Amino acid sequence: MEIIIDATNQTLGRLATKIATTLRGKHLASFEPNQMPGIIVKITNYDKIRFTGQKLRQKEYYHYSGYHSGLKTRKLGELWISRPTEVIRMSVYRMLPKNKMRDKLIKNLKFA
């Protein structure tokens, strides 16, 4: 099953929750938390997402390399210019359950 979601004029967080619940199959009557539903979600017009407030200037994403002084930060605005699909993928990935199925579920997220 393939579901197409139009991201035009939607905020990032509300769109990510919609994608995460659809990927898990929670909208189906036959939902089971330990089963893979096999739903592929395609996102269209992802470059037209809107951000509320000052998130583009203030929100920061962190990455730690594991070494001393290895914490790197990037602003949402910088990351959005370089890789907008990665911003959406990270927000959906962090909303999925933290177990073995998370890596398998995020592979069903496609960008058109």
TrEMBL record:
Alphabetical UniProt keywords: Ribonucleoprotein, Ribosomal protein
Gene3D superfamilies: Ribosomal protein L13
One BP annotation, GO: translation
Signal peptide start-end: none
InterPro entries assigned to the protein according to its UniProt record, in alphabetical order: Ribosomal_uL13 (IPR005822), Ribosomal_uL13_bac-type (IPR005823), Ribosomal_uL13_sf (IPR036899)
CC per GO annotation: cytosolic large ribosomal subunit
GO molecular function terms attached to this record: mRNA binding; structural constituent of ribosome
A Pfam entry, by short name: Ribosomal_L13
Domain of life: Bacteria
Quaternary structure note: Part of the 50S ribosomal subunit.
Family classification: Belongs to the universal ribosomal protein uL13 family.
Biological role stated in the UniProt entry: This protein is one of the early assembly proteins of the 50S ribosomal subunit, although it is not seen to bind rRNA by itself. It is important during the early stages of 50S assembly.
NCBIfam families: rplM_bact
Protein name per its UniProtKB record: Large ribosomal subunit protein uL13
